[in-house]
Amino acid sequence: MTKSIVRKALGLFLIIVMIATAVVYPASTGHAATINVTDNGSRIEVNTGSGLVYVVNKTNGDIISAKMNGTELNSNRGSHIGSGLGSSANVTWNTSPSGSTVLITVSTSTLTHYYASRGGENIIYMATHITAQPSIGELRYIFRGNGSVLTGVPANSNNRGNTGAIESQDVFGFANGQSASKYYGNDQAKDLSVRGVTGNGVGVFMAYGNREKSSGGPFFRDIQFQSGTETEVYNYMNSGHAQTENWRLGLHGPYALIFTTGGTPSVPDFSWMSGLNLQGWVSSRGNVVLNGLSGMDTGYAYTIGFANSNAQYWVGTSSSGAAAKYSMIAGTYTMTAYKGELAVYTETVNVTAGQTTTLNTRTINNDPSKASNIWRIGNWDGTPRELLNGQTIPIRHPSDSRNPSWGPVTYATGSATNRFPAIQFRGQNSPTTITFNLNASQAASSHTLNIGITAAYNNGRPSVTVNGHALTNPAASSQPNSRSFTIGTYRGNNTTFSWNVPASYFVNGSNTITITPISGSSDLGNWLSAGWVYDCVELLN
Predict the structure, then answer these.
(1) CA 209 to each of CA 127, 205, 222: distance values in angstroms, whole numbers, following the listed order
(2) Is the distance from CB of 187 to CB of 216 less than 8 angstroms?
(3) For residues 303 and 351, what is the distance between their CA atoms, to the nearest angstrom?
(4) pTM more than 0.70
(5) φ, ψ for residue 61 (rounded to 5)?
(6) Percentage of residues of the chain with pLDDT beyond 70
């Protein structure tokens, strides 16, 4: 065999080897940087090679150090899943054949938590698989940050300088009458993307990732930050904070902690994690395409939600109501169209792995705003945002000095909507009085009175009189068994209380309705008192 033939054969062999290598290890082709892992028996140190070095405690799976370009960003306490796993955790790790990725697995009998990183990226990718809800009743990842370094924090959850707790041990007041809490300033689930905290040349951001195994739907809020001695960044996946549905088990995530030099990062690519063989990972999925909605109100945004006991999803619509949701776990879902945050259409939809379910245009059939009325206070959208202090519920305590007085309020129909209280507290602003005029024809007829609420506390429901005539007291609505509107949310179970008011209760001319909360339980204070959040109040023709 001549030398030229040998050289050609050797060159062809090398080409084949390179092609085969690219096929066998596709995940490493774009991330060839080596990741350095050191295990001394009690600690696993990961150096991504681009500035991030973090350490995992092998006893409990806590991150006990996280340095960006040499600056320690973790506090003296560990960052961890739940409240920490204690000594019951089993911690193992392995790298990819190329040496460019590491996977650390932290497991107990009911929980498996994953840390993963790639060389050249300052990211800790995570996912958490559960077969039972943690005993603390909350599934959350907490990054406990160095409070002296990470000082650029959200104002609404910054408790530094407070004068003490004003509710429980988690809502704090200040000398100027303002308030702050880990419950305030949090995003709705549909808006969770990337948020974080910063310092001088450093930043730590949470990419919240897939919410399919969380609970509460698109408008649910939960804790994201808290700043005191430490700077805490959370990813709450399940909790008992005003939950409207059962917890979901399985694989939560993926999600990620992203470390930067201060800038806000984009959402990372999680798709490479499909090759890590994480427990509960579902690769084969289906899609739903909705061609449109008829009967929409152009003044509102619409959201399409999908939910069953295994997963939840949502997507916004176009101006015509068209929407497409991709990458759903196969199953049968309740599809709900929301006007604002109010369900106005539902149906059952089947999702098949590897297929797209296409739905023709659907007609909205349950929008109460379409009913003819004599007067209406607010509008049916599942929120109190247009009412007095309605927009401040998610960002501050009701007692906050920045809020205008809650009343008691006497409201004349036709007045500015933002004069009507967003919340009715039995201990603080009751009763609410509504005055309105009827002509002779209207006063001679019976009418339906509707009071729509988005949430209630302490079994609060309305006791109503019309010109001194008492209407039948309703039963309590079904609501989450927790605080709600004092911890930054007006979301509960939308409920409408309805009465058929006889003509004999009305008069020609000026009429008066009074609304007072009743409950079978005693109150804990003016703000933690029986009450509800208003959506809409109306008198129909």
Answers:
(1) 10, 12, 15
(2) no
(3) 18
(4) yes
(5) 80, 5
(6) 94
Structure tokens, 376: 């209406």
Contact status, residue 508 vs residue 262, Cβ threshold 8 Å: no
**Interval 290-328: pLDDT, tens:** 999 999 999 999 999 999 999 999 999 999 999 999 999
Q: How confident is the model at residue 88 (pLDDT cuts 50, 70, 90)?
A: confident
Which candidate, 231, 229, 236, places its Cα nearest to that of 196?
231
Sheet hosting strand 461-466, strand order edge to edge = 410-412, 432-438, 509-518, 461-466, 469-470
Digit-coded pLDDT (tens) for 110-161: 999 999 999 999 999 999 999 999 988 899 999 999 999 999 999 999 999 9
Contact 100, 109 (CB under 8 A): no
Rounded-to-integer distance, Cα 302 and Cα 293, Å: 9
Instruction: Say if CB 127 and CB 208 are below 8 A apart.
Output: no
- Give the per-residue SS3 of 179-207: EEECCCCCCEHHHCCEEEEEECCEEEEEE
Place of tokens 């650029």: 152
State which amino acid sits at residue 470. A
Is residue 6 over pLDDT 60?
Answer: no
Residue carrying the six token digits 């609970």: 215
Residue with tokens 């993963």: 116
Q: What residue type is 225 in one-letter code?
A: F
Over residues 400-434, the pLDDT tens digits come to: 999 999 999 999 999 999 999 999 999 999 999 99
Number of Cβ within 10 Å of residue 510's Cβ equals: 11
